[in-house]
């Protein structure tokens, strides 16, 4: 018969192991202000909220990398890979804090709230006031983006080991069960954060305010969990320091939230000058207009890229539209072109009976119709009774379009190096476009700059050929403002990078870029200059390039 043993003295090794399992709690016995079941629920709820906040920070940095430097797969991959690497390092580093898990977790959450909440504003400020996004990753603001990714990842990685220690102190259980509970709360929280960012925070609050609010939630929940549930694990000094740190973080975040509108206006002026007239966020992108009054040229920026420059737009749109209008032109399809400027040039040609415009952003179309300067520039083309505008993704729209419906298709789309536009420069997309062309129809494609990005430009040509079309390339030189830029940011950067626009004219039979003698005479283009532009483009030809497809995009980012 086994004799019952007397209880071990309080504070002995045996009493700690009875209360917390083998190894004890590495400190004094834990006394919760609530029942064990309630304590475990509160810790898991804290894991849920912190995981949601952590994923919002990750997505915020990815969105900033895409917005500020061009949305390429490479940049997104760099941000995510740095963060995942840092999370592993943070988890290892947190092992040394397990003896002080409550204080360590509270400190980590306060730091994470400050870094994650302010990251968007800090990066946007550096971008706006320095504009130094050239060079290698180690230079300027690019290094700051990597530093924020690294720091955020370190702090997120440190959460799980500390939370594991805290939940085990409440009630010791097998490691597999504890990991399963924490992982479930963590993954569900990540799901909520991942859905909240694009569908709630970004459209309703924007990048800057959304990050600040997320940081405030992170600080409140992390601080409340430690100070409310594990306060007896902390010394009086530690409690005071943690309260002071969280109050300071919340004051900083609240102050930034109050000043965010003034900050955005100042940042816009720093980037675009003091002549910003319209700045709005549509369901698709940020739209900004400068100039257009008192003789100043109008500029239209979409997500920071200069898409219409008043000094350059006529040369661009005449070169885009007029060579394709030589021949049958009763039915015309314009892909993109929600600003109405390509439509303006199409309507100058006699015999045009119908123009269908497929534009993904209804906000741009509204602006092109209602803004006095932009509507005057496009000659109110979108209000012409022959014009019909559809708000849709061009790829999806073409899949349902009738065959052989158009004599001319004008593809006035962003540069293919932008990730979101790559599918609109794929073999599959051009196959759909070929299907809607009449037997004698022509397709013209803006393919980006010829001299500075020849591989991208000639990949467009190779992709059109792979779709069963014959092609002829030409360019328009004399570019001044970097208009219709690719992944490079803003007017200043692109003005130095790009001095021309490249176009590809495609048809079932070999096309020849020329002007229609029965059509209007362009103001910036002649038959001789067009022939010279064909020869200039041909001199840059890069041969042997494979076509770009949906599953194997070939364009640079």
Automatic annotation (TrEMBL):
It comes from Streptomyces griseoflavus Tu4000. Residues 1-23 are annotated as: Disordered. The gene is speE. The active site is at 412 (proton acceptor). Catalyzes the irreversible transfer of a propylamine group from the amino donor S-adenosylmethioninamine (decarboxy-AdoMet) to putrescine (1,4-diaminobutane) to yield spermidine. It is an enzyme of class 2 (transferase). GO terms for molecular function: spermidine synthase activity; thermospermine synthase activity. GO terms for biological process: spermidine biosynthetic process. The chain crosses the membrane at residues 41-67, 73-94, 106-131, 143-163, 184-205, 211-230, 242-260. One of its GO terms (cellular component) is plasma membrane. Its EC number is 2.5.1.16. Belongs to the spermidine/spermine synthase family. S-methyl-5'-thioadenosine binds at residues 285, 359, 393-394. Spermidine binds at residues 317, 339. It comes from the Bacteria. The keyword Flavoprotein does not apply. Keywords: Cell membrane, Membrane, Polyamine biosynthesis, Spermidine biosynthesis, Transferase, Transmembrane, Transmembrane helix. This is Polyamine aminopropyltransferase. It is a multi-pass membrane protein. It catalyses: S-adenosyl 3-(methylsulfanyl)propylamine + putrescine = S-methyl-5'-thioadenosine + spermidine + H(+). It holds the Pfam family Spermine_synth. Homodimer or homotetramer. It is found in: Cell membrane. Residues 257-495 form the PABS domain. Pathway: Amine and polyamine biosynthesis; spermidine biosynthesis; spermidine from putrescine: step 1/1. Residues 1-10 have a biased composition (Pro residues). Signal peptide: none annotated.
């Amino acid at each position: 018969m086994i004799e019952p043993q007397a209880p071990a003295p309080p504070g002995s090794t045996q009493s700690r192991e009875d209360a917390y399992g083998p190894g004890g709690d590495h400190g004094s016995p834990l006394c919760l202000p609530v029942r064990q079941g309630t304590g475990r629920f509160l810790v898991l709820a804290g894991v849920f909220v912190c995981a949601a906040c952590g994923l919002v920070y990750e997505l915020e940095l990815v969105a900033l990398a895409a917005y500020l430097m061009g949305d390429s797969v490479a940049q997104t991959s760099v941000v995510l890979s740095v963060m995942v690497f840092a999370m592993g390092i943070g988890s290892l580093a947190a092992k040394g804090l397990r003896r002080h898990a409550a204080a360590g977790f509270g400190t980590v959450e306060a730091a994470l709230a400050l870094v994650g909440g302010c990251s968007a504003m800090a990066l946007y400020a550096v971008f706006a006031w320095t504009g130094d996004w050239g060079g290698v990753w180690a230079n300027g603001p690019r290094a700051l983006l990597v530093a924020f990714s690294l720091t955020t990842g370190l702090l997120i990685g440190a959460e799980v080991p500390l939370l594991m220690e805290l939940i085990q102190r409440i009630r010791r259980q097998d490691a597999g069960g504890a990991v399963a509970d924490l992982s479930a709360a963590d993954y569900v929280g990540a799901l909520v954060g991942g859905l909240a960012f694009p569908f709630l925070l970004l459209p309703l609050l924007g990048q800057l305010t959304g990050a600040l609010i997320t940081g405030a939630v992170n600080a409140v929940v992390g601080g409340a969990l430690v100070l409310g549930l594990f306060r007896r694990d902390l010394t009086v000094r530690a409690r005071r320091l943690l309260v002071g740190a969280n109050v300071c973080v919340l004051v900083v975040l609240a102050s930034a939230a109050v000043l965010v509108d003034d900050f955005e206006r100042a940042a816009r002026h720093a980037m675009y000058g003091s002549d910003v007239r319209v700045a709005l966020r549509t369901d698709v992108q940020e739209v900004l207009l400068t100039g257009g009054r008192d003789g100043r040229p109008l500029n239209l920026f979409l997500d920071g890229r200069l898409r219409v420059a008043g000094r350059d737009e006529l040369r661009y749109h005449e070169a885009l539209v007029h060579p394709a209008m030589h021949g049958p032109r009763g039915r015309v399809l314009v892909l993109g072109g929600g600003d109405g400027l390509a439509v303006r040039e199409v309507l100058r040609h006699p015999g045009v009976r119908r123009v269908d415009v497929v534009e993904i952003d209804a906000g741009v179309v509204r602006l092109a119709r209602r803004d006095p300067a932009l509507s005057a520039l496009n000659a109110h083309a979108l209000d012409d009774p022959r014009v019909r505008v559809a708000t849709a993704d061009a790829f999806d729209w073409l899949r349902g379009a009738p065959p052989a419906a158009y004599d001319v298709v004008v593809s006035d789309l962003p540069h293919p190096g932008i990730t979101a536009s790559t599918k609109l420069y794929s073999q599959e997309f051009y196959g759909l476009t070929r299907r809607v062309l009449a037997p004698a129809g022509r397709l013209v494609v803006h393919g980006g700059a010829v001299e500075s990005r020849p591989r991208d430009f000639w990949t467009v040509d190779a992709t059109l050929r792979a779709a069963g079309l014959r092609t002829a390339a030409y360019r328009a030189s004399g570019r001044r403002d970097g208009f219709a830029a690719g992944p490079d940011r803003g007017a200043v950067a692109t003005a130095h990078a790009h001095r021309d626009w490249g176009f590809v004219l495609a048809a079932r039979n070999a096309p020849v870029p020329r002007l229609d003698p029965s059509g209007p005479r362009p103001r910036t283009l002649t038959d001789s200059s067009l022939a010279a532009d064909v020869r200039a483009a041909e001199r840059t030809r890069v041969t042997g390039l494979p076509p770009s497809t949906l599953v194997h995009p070939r364009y640079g980012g």
